Amino acid sequence: MNIYAIGDLHLSNAQPKAMDIFGDHWKNHFEKISADWNARVKEDDIVLIPGDISWAMNIADAVCDLDAICDLPGKKIMIKGNHDYWWGSMSKINAVLYNETYILQNNSLVVGDYVFCGTRGWSLPGDNGFSENDKKIFEREKLRLQLSLDTTKKYQDKKKIALMHFPPVYENIKNTDFAEILERGGVSEVVFGHLHGEVLKNLHLTNLKIGSVNYNLVSADYLDFKLKKIC
After folding, report:
1. 159 burial class (0-12, 13-18, 19+ CB within 10 angstroms)?
2. Model pLDDT for residues 172-220, shown as the tens digit of each residue
């Protein structure tokens, strides 16, 4: 069993949004992702999708985007991103998912020798423009990450992998509260996305290790729209 990851699919089948407004490399981006996915992923493999799945504003419009993901091979595990406005209750989302496609929200999921957990995350206190409102959301996301990790405690024999949408660390901001929670919780790998465009040119987050935790940036454009093999 292989574990892959790719984030920020930004699908928009119900109300198409031309992603190449963010650069020519985004043209037909999901066709590129799907081609790589179909060529590499087997039915017993896992693909992690850490947020920004669909531009849809409600679950009805998101269904065709979710169908496109469900129809791809392998087991799929997703968390919410900051643009996933369609994301509602777990019961409503689970009702439209199929073909071993799952979501995480204050819980965890065991597959084979691994247990998966995570949360959306938020801007870090060291970010420019970090406000009092950001602090409230940041503290709430810390609690959600801890809640998800707490559900993994009964699986001490499993390797823990966490999904987050926002970066829990930066190359120059390593000692974050998120990093402390992940380290204390025994997580070995973290996948995250959210970062795009020009900001990627000045980042070195390909193989970042802090303590015993490996951090993997898997934004689709950062990966040239190819899945990253995590383990």
Report:
1. middle
2. 778 899 999 999 999 999 999 998 776 666 666 667 899 999 999 999 9
